């Protein structure tokens, strides 16, 4: 969506090249974005096997946010942004949070997916895990830092369920 917002033509080949996604992942993503109303096929343009896409009015607003997220992140960080739970987890970290608080905010995430997502972001220095030893039992808290904090600020008005 950010690529469409930045002026890349809505043709499948141009978008595939710009995103670096595989054909299968690209097709699944585009179908999902159409299903939730952020994209539509451009009627009268493209070929059935090579469609052309355009943003819907709601998609244009979402694309502005997606473009801001790309602006605050580096090119080598795009793979982490493409992970399923990175943005929803960062959006929930508006304040230091425990694992259980993050999980409660994201109703459909599994413990394993949340744990892996937090670990990946911790490895990239997007999230910091600090254990509060003053309380019993010790309580780990997660904070968005560096690029993670910048993305969290961009996504502060979004809700994920």
From TrEMBL:
UniProt entry tagged with the keyword Transcription: yes
Keywords: DNA-binding, Transcription, Transcription regulation
UniProt domain HTH hxlR-type: residue ranges: 72-161
One Pfam family recorded for the sequence: HxlR
UniProt-recorded name of the protein: Winged helix-turn-helix transcriptional regulator
Source organism of the structure: Kiloniella antarctica
Organism lineage string: Bacteria, Pseudomonadati, Pseudomonadota, Alphaproteobacteria, Rhodospirillales
């Amino acid at each position: 969506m950010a690529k469409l917002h930045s002026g890349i033509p809505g043709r499948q080949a141009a978008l595939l090249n710009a995103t670096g996604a595989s054909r299968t992942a690209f097709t699944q993503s585009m179908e999902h974005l159409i299903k939730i109303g952020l994209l539509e096929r451009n009627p009268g343009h493209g070929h059935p096997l090579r469609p052309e896409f355009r943003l819907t009015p709601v998609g244009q607003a979402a694309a502005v946010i997606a473009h801001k997220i790309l602006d605050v992140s580096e090119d080598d960080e795009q793979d982490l942004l493409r992970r399923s739970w990175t943005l929803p987890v960062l959006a929930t970290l508006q304040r230091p949070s425990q694992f259980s608080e993050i999980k409660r905010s994201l109703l459909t995430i599994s413990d394993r997916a949340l744990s892996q997502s937090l670990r990946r972001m911790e490895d990239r220095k997007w999230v910091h895990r600090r254990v509060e030893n003053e309380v019993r039992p010790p309580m780990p808290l997660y904070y968005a830092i560096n690029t993670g904090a910048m993305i969290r600020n961009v996504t502060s008005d979004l809700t994920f369920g």
